[in-house]
Each structure stands twice: as structure tokens, then as C-alpha cells.
Amino acid sequence: MLAPALAAVLALGAVPAVADAAPRWSVCAGSCSFDVPPGDYEIEVLLGGRAAGSTGLDVEARRIALAPVDTGPGQHVRRSVTVEVRTPEGMPSGEDGPGPPGLQVQLTGTAPQPVRIAMTPRPKAPRIFVLSDSTAADWANLPKNGWAQALPELFRAGPSVRNYAQSGASTVSYLGDPRYFARVRPMIRPGDTALIQLAHNDKQTTEAGYRANLATLIAGVRAQGGAAVLVTPPVRHRFGADGKLTPLGLVVNNLGVDLPAVMRDVARQQRVPLLDLTARSQALLESLGEAASWPLYLTLAHDGVDDATHLSRYGAEQFAALVARAAAQARLPLSAFLRPGRL
């Protein structure tokens, strides 16, 4: 049975929040903005209404907070997720602009219906930080998507995915630029997890330098009481005549350094968990084949140029699922919050 305050909102179909109720419910149709300060918030939504619908939620810089949920006429479904509100909304460089203040919500799905939303501050929520490059980044503008942009939809309320991936970042620049690790490190606290996936832009980084940089990132996370997890990079859509990915596709750099292999060895030496996104994405692409795997990436249909590195929305969701499955199989603590049925 619905709480009386929420039932009143449903009956009215009105926008005002319910007086003297916690949480406070509002109605959102299409898109809406909430005037809240930066921080972590639990969003609870009530989906469905008089008509059948298929409704999901994107928040802030096109982060997928909730995959579309189908509802029948008169059916209501509750879902909740924890999200971060920050400025800038997207990448830490702010290259996509700061974004509007507060929390931005956009309804998605093939037949989105107005939703009832309640927000609750969660200042003590465990956080999942993502330290990465453009392949994982929160892209505020189309057509590019990062896999970590799709990660929130795979978790129920609890942990907040804080994606600080930056386009163009390498292990060198992520450590050297004060907008990146120097900003993220003080935010990390005991109980937080940091997913470290940097390799694509380490094109001229020596093996010794790459090892040292990964070790520095791991040490910085540990010094804050956080748990570091290495994530090997997603593959590029580069096939050879044999139907297998080329060394470029497998993220071997210009100096011949097999960066995923080095990362695997660093994980072993540093005794940190490793999520092998390289191996998992390689298996996915090679099982599909060169032509059938293109929809994972940006193709001619988007901007006239095939992009063998950056992901479509579909690809971001598929690669995020690969990371989540790896986390579940590794029995990482964060996997306890994975949403049932999404993997």
C-alpha cells in the first residue's frame, strides 16, 4: 500500500512536494532540475501511471542512473539509486562546460511516463571513484559515451559512482595535472573504492614509467584508506585479416609496451584486485566479428567518421556490464550493491 502522502501526489498528478513528509515527493515529466548543493543523494522514483510506459532516468552529464523499466496500465514500480551532484557535471577539466547548478534529471525510454521522485542526502554513502580517460568519461554532449557513464544503472541505492575520468588523460597527466588525481585523492575515505583504468593515452610511456605511475596511484588511494582496483583498458575496434584484434586494438603502445599485460603484473605485485576489461572486451568483439561489433563504437551513422576507440551508448552499457560482472566474480565488496537482473 502506498504511503498516504505519496498516494495524494499520485491522485493529484501535481508537482508540489508533500508537506511535512520525509522524503519529499515531486513529479517530473520529460526533464526537471532540483536545487540542491553538491554531494551524494539517493534518488527514489515511482514509475508508472494510468498508461503503459517504458521509463528510465539519466542524470547530470547524461549519466545513466536507471535503465528503462516497462510498466503496464495502472502499474507502479519503485526504484532507487545513489548519484553525485557536482560542478562541473562532466569531466573534471570542465571542457563540456560546468552544467546547470543542482541535480538535472532527464527521462528516457521508448514511452516515458511522468515519474514521482524523492531525494535524500547521503553524505556517508560509500563511493566508487573512477580514474580513467575518455573511454570511461562522463560525456555531457553527444555522441561519445564512457563505460563508467553507464555504471550507475547497474547499482541499487547505496554506493555513489563518482566518475572523474578525463578525456586525453594518461597515467602521466592524471598524476601531473592538479585538476585530476590531486583533486580526487582528498575526497577518498575509508570504505571507498577507486577503479583505475589508464592506458589508452600512455602511447609514449615506457614500461618502467607506466609501472611507477600505477604504483603511485595505488599508494595514493591506499593512503586515504580507500581500496584500489586496477581495470585493464577496453580494446579498440582494430581487426586484422585473421579476424583477431591487432596489437593496436589490444592497447600495445607506440613503444611496443603491452600496457594491459603490465597492469596485470602490477596488480599481482601490489596485491590489488584486477578487473580484466581488455580480455573481456576482446572476447566480446571477436565473438561478434568485425562488422557485428561496430555498434559498440561510434560509426559513420553518428558524425561521418568511424571511431575505433570511443563508445556508443549501447557500447558503454555493454562494457559497464563487463566491468560489473568482473567485480562480482572477484567478490569485491561493491558487488553486494549490484542490481539483481541487470547482469
Could you explain how this protein is built, in words?
The chain is 24% helix and 25% strand. It has helices spanning 4-12, 171-176, 181-184, 207-223, 259-270, 277-288, 300-303, 313-329; strands at 25-28, 31-34, 39-47, 53-59, 63-71, 77-85, 103-111, 115-121, 127-132, 160-163, 193-197, 227-231, 274-275, 297-298, 307-311. The strands form 4 sheets. A 5-stranded parallel β-sheet has the order 10-9-11-12-13. Strands 1-8-3-6 form a 4-stranded antiparallel β-sheet, with helices on one face. Strands 2-7-4-5 form a 4-stranded antiparallel β-sheet, with no helix packed on it. Strand 11 (193-197), helix 4 and strand 12 (227-231) form a beta-alpha-beta unit. The longest helix is centred in the middle third of the chain and has 17 residues, at 207-223. Residues 1-21 have low confidence and may be disordered.
Describe the structure concisely.
This protein is an alpha/beta fold and 343 residues long. It contains 8 helices and 15 strands. Mean pLDDT is 92; it is low at 1-21.
Strand content: 25-35%
- The helix fraction, in percent, is 10-25%
Alpha-beta classification: alpha/beta
Dominant shape: globular
Write the element-wise H/E pattern from the N-terminal end onward.
HEEEEEEEEEEHHEHEHEHEHEH
Distance between the termini: 30 Å
* Rg calc: 21 Å
Number of strands: 15
Count of separate DSSP helical elements = 8
Oligomer: single chain
Unreliable runs, pLDDT <50, ≥5 residues? 1-21
Sheet with most strands: strand arrangement: 10-9-11-12-13
Major sheet description: 5 strands, parallel
Name the average pLDDT.
Answer: 92
